[in-house]
Write a structure and sequence with these properties.
By secondary structure, this protein is mainly beta. It is built from three helices and 20 strands.
């Protein structure tokens, strides 16, 4: 009887020892996100920064649109560590010319500069919360906020508005009729439900934990409040054309902290979610 227990214990120890493992999901290119999942992880470090791991062994990190450098990820276990190297290739982006943009959205009129500055502060304050939540709410998995619809602008495009070069497009645009319901791409907490901002119109910022965040711009309506927990697929607002927009569409953006991520790459990650 004692011997039987002894064997059983041995089995647990061996299984635990070999359970020190880590897997990565996603492709390392500029604008991508990588989800890691492992067992018995003590810490994870990306280059020189520690990144959080939740109790189920989930962690996440991303590479900005313009990042073409090499990164090292060190996963520390009890007594061993795994080092993974990510070499980012150069990625080509489209050039997008929009010529029927209202003048006030190409060059900011003086009278609106204070308003825009105030809005920037509100956005910054809301974004300051991102990263504090260490729990991986995104382990719900990801969905497209709108099924179907015409993709009117892809991620990363170099924008030229009425002939003037502007910032790159930091999301994707899905053109659908006004009023189309917009769903949360993953479980998250509402950090901002902004009303009538100059460029973004009515918009929502969601925090999915560990620095991952998503935003939904130009809405006609928002159904959520700051601090509210939303489930993946929950309707958070309706499509509109508020702010700098030339017709009803959803601008869907994703970031890891301030790194601009391509939502379409995010959707390709199907595992290791529950
Ligand atoms: Zn857009």
């Amino acid at each position: 009887m004692i011997l039987k227990h002894f064997f059983f214990l041995c089995l647990i120890f061996t299984t635990n020892y070999f359970a020190q493992s880590v897997e990565f999901f996603g492709k390392a290119i500029p604008g991508s996100i990588i989800v890691g999942k492992g067992e018995k992880i003590i810490s994870v470090r990306l280059d020189t920064t520690d990144i959080p791991v939740d109790k189920d062994g989930y962690f996440i990190f991303g590479f900005d649109r313009d990042d073409t450098t090499t990164h090292y990820l060190i996963v520390q276990f009890n007594g061993k560590s795994v080092i993974k190297k990510f070499i980012l290739p150069k990625r080509k982006y489209k050039i997008q010319r929009i010529n029927r943009m209202k003048k006030k959205f190409v060059t900011l009129p003086k009278k609106d500069s204070i308003r825009v500055a105030k809005e920037r502060v509100i956005k910054k304050q809301a974004r300051a919360e991102i990263g504090k939540l260490k729990k991986a709410l995104y382990k719900s998995g990801f969905i497209r906020p709108i099924k179907g619809g015409r993709l009117s602008s892809v991620f990363g495009s170099q924008r030229i508005l009425n002939g003037i070069p502007k910032n790159a497009h930091n999301g994707i645009d899905i053109a659908v009729p006004r009023g189309t319901p917009v769903k949360a791409m993953a479980d998250g907490i509402v950090r901002l439900s902004a009303n009538n901002f100059y460029y973004s119109g009515n918009f929502i910022l969601l925090d999915h934990g560990q620095g991952l965040n998503s935003f939904y711009l130009h809405l006609s309506k928002s159904f959520v409040k700051e601090g509210q927990y939303v489930k993946k697929g929950e309707i958070i607002g309706k499509v509109g054309t508020t702010g700098r927009s030339t017709g009803p569409h959803l601008h869907w953006g994703v970031q890891w902290f301030n790194k601009r991520v391509d939502p379409q790459l995010l959707l390709k990650i199907k595992e290791p979610f529950k």
